[in-house]
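User: Hey, quick favor. My workstation is busy. Could you predict this chain's structure for me?
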Amino acid sequence: MAERPVFLIRNGKVVGVPYTFQWFPGFAVSQKQKSVESLHDAIRQSDGSAAPLEISTKSSCDIGARLSAFNLRLGGYPLENVFQSAKVFENGGPFFDLLEVPPKEAKRDPRLRGSGPLQAFCYQEEMFPLTPKTVFYDYIYIRAVKESLPAEAAEAIRGYTHFTDIEFNPARSINTQARTAALVKLLLEEKGYLPDFSAEAFITYHREHVN
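Assistant: No problem, here it is.
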């Protein structure tokens, strides 16, 4: 058995709720999809009206795979590269040259581990603090959804209620595309579109709407 957070909207906020489900070990996509279906079954058993959506390349739904951070681009660059290149450390960064390398290389660049403590993120000359913890990732993800997907594709997310990311383990990482997908749904329901936030405006919105 395993436990993973599932993200949904409750009282106008994005919240994470832990669910226990049967885990199918192995690296094969088929094994990952079995775990996804097991988690989704647990969600449906808890809430008969639930419509869960896996947000990852392992998703069996087209919109879930298209919303994977691995398939989204921002400014013409993979989202992973944008995230890593924007890091500002005590002794270096941002490292914008990381935009031009393969995503795996960007993530493994030795400067990201050898430049002292992480202090902020810098994107298009706007600074993002480390708190709220996921604010920068959520900001660039939403912008990438707006840039990478047609409006009608993004709108499809409204038909779902619970968002999962089978690869996300909160004991090992902070950011997850499932949380941000729930935030995309909230924005579409509240505003009818994905706004062009300034950094300051998004940080304020994030503090009010993401637990």
